[in-house]
Amino acid sequence: MQGNRLLKTALTSTVRRQQCLFRTTVARNSSGITRLGTEVLPTMSQAVVHNDIVYLSGQVDGTGEDVVAQTKNVLAKVDAYLEEAGTDKSKLLTSTIWLKNIERDFGAMNEVWCQWIDQNNKPVRATTEASLAAPNMLVEIQVTAAK
Question: For residues 130 and 36, what is the distance between their CA atoms, to the nearest angstrom?
Fold first, then answer.
């Protein structure tokens, strides 16, 4: 039952996540780990920085009407968290992309990705199909970057 409550909280917090994006909480501890966006969801940080590596959680968007709009919104979140962590997309190391329907949406998502990515500094990337956390979510993107 508690799992259902957490899932419901996560699914209903998309708008709250977007509102909180630019006023995130920074939590530092004695081991040199910095956590960003800890107030967005009770289950995770939106970004963690350790040893000059920035790890972003999977970013999603439930407001865009199609995969193009959602991908653009997600990549804007990625840019914002990377900037807050002191880096940018030119320093990406890895990326993982999950699509709700890879056959239908891969081409459109990939066009947005190719327009966004730093052409001189492409990360390694994996793209796969997956059931996402809510029915209206079409794409989720997670990245890791150097500082």
Answer: 26
